[in-house]
């Protein structure tokens, strides 16, 4: 690793610190959630087009020198890629990386929970849109809810904080908001409800029947007063406590984009595309740099240049891309 100077905090052109990398290790997934990709799946990248673990490790090291402190592994589903745990162990030991975590659908995760705990993973985001087995199979097109719940309870038993992410979809799972929210009554979990986003591999409706306002009103009407929790800069979720509940509720305005002003995250797709906003079309081909012989210093400069030209918010980023692209992009390709 090169010994170039590193600022204590890296800022974009709008004065927002960039400390959080969401790193997609694969575009493949073992579920077919209809809001993420079409039923037939997507055309997966050939293996040689994916970043290797060695390339990702090098890149994370460079970003750590620049000020990135937190790394979240995403996909697709991270655990469909072989040898993920040894890669995570190496990342956890990189100087400057203070927090390593992941987002998973939980189908394959349970056997790896002890390893996650031993390497110091303190929190895991678990994608779970319903506790009803039939609706789970309908939404994901796979009958895997029992295995997901095995992972959920294994994480809790290992002392790993669980954040459940549930996408709220009109006519699909709105009846599941309250059963999911009730998990916080007796368990120390965060249950976070996410506005549906237009990354499903198909066209997307222009309106959003269940936005963050309606979700909050629905929860408060049925559970009682939601007491806001002070959020940290960079948080995407507005968190709430409910009297008598051990855990917390959260609402993520992913489509309304109310949190852009403090966004501290960047994304790297499985093929090495840098996204400084979820809604942009990709701003830098890092794979080409790495495989073209660029030095660590040259990669760092290219990254900093991209960060100096970051969109002010998701709406500006969306306006800068071709209008036909957004609805037909898949979250599995972007990185969850």
From TrEMBL:
Cofactor note: Binds 2 [4Fe-4S] clusters. Binds 1 [4Fe-4S] cluster coordinated with 3 cysteines and an exchangeable S-adenosyl-L-methionine and 1 [4Fe-4S] cluster coordinated with 3 cysteines and the GTP-derived substrate.
Entry keywords, A to Z: 4Fe-4S, GTP-binding, Iron, Iron-sulfur, Lyase, Metal-binding, Molybdenum cofactor biosynthesis, Nucleotide-binding, S-adenosyl-L-methionine
Binding residue positions for [4Fe-4S] cluster 1: 29, 33, 36
Domain spans labelled Radical SAM core: 13-230
Region (Disordered): 314-336
Cofactor(s) recorded in Swiss-Prot or TrEMBL: [4Fe-4S] cluster
One MF annotation (Gene Ontology) recorded for this entry: 4 iron, 4 sulfur cluster binding
Function per UniProt: Catalyzes the cyclization of GTP to (8S)-3',8-cyclo-7,8-dihydroguanosine 5'-triphosphate.
Protein name per Swiss-Prot or TrEMBL: GTP 3',8-cyclase
Gene assigned in the entry: moaA
């Amino acid at each position: 690793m090169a010994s170039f100077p590193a600022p204590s905090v890296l800022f974009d052109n709008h004065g927002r610190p960039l400390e959080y990398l969401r790193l997609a290790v694969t575009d493949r997934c073992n579920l077919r959630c209809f809001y993420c990709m079409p039923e037939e799946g997507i055309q997966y990248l050939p293996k040689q087009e994916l970043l290797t673990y060695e390339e990702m490790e090098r890149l994370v090291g460079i970003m750590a020198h620049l000020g990135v402190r937190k790394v979240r592994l995403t996909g697709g589903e991270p655990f469909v890629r072989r040898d993920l745990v040894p890669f995570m162990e190496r990342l956890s030991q990189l100087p400057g990386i203070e927090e390593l975590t992941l987002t998973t659908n939980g189908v394959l995760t349970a056997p790896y929970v002890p390893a996650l705990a031993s390497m110091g993973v303190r929190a895991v985001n678990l994608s779970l849109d319903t506790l009803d087995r039939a609706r789970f199979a309908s939404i994901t097109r796979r009958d895997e809810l029992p295995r997901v719940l095995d992972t959920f309870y294994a994480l809790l038993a290992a002392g790993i904080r669980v954040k459940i992410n549930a996408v709220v979809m009109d006519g699909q799972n709105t009846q599941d908001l309250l059963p999911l929210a009730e998990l916080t009554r007796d368990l120390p979990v965060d249950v976070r409800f996410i506005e549906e986003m237009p990354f499903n591999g198909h066209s997307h409706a222009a309106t959003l029947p269940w936005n963050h306002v309606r979700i909050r009103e629905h929860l408060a009407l049925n559970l009682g007063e939601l007491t806001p929790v002070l959020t940290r800069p960079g948080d995407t979720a507005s968190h709430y406590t409910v009297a008598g509940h051990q855990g917390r509720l959260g609402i993520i305005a992913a489509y309304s984009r109310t949190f852009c002003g403090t966004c501290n995250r960047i994304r790297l797709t499985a093929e090495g595309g840098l996204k400084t906003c979820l809604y942009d079309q990709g701003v830098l081909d890092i794979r080409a740099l790495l495989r073209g012989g660029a030095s660590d210093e040259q990669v760092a400069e290219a990254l900093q240049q991209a960060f100096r030209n970051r969109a002010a918010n998701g709406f500006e980023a969306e306006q800068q891309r071709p209008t036909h692209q957004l609805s037909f992009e898949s979250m599995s390709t972007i990185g969850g």
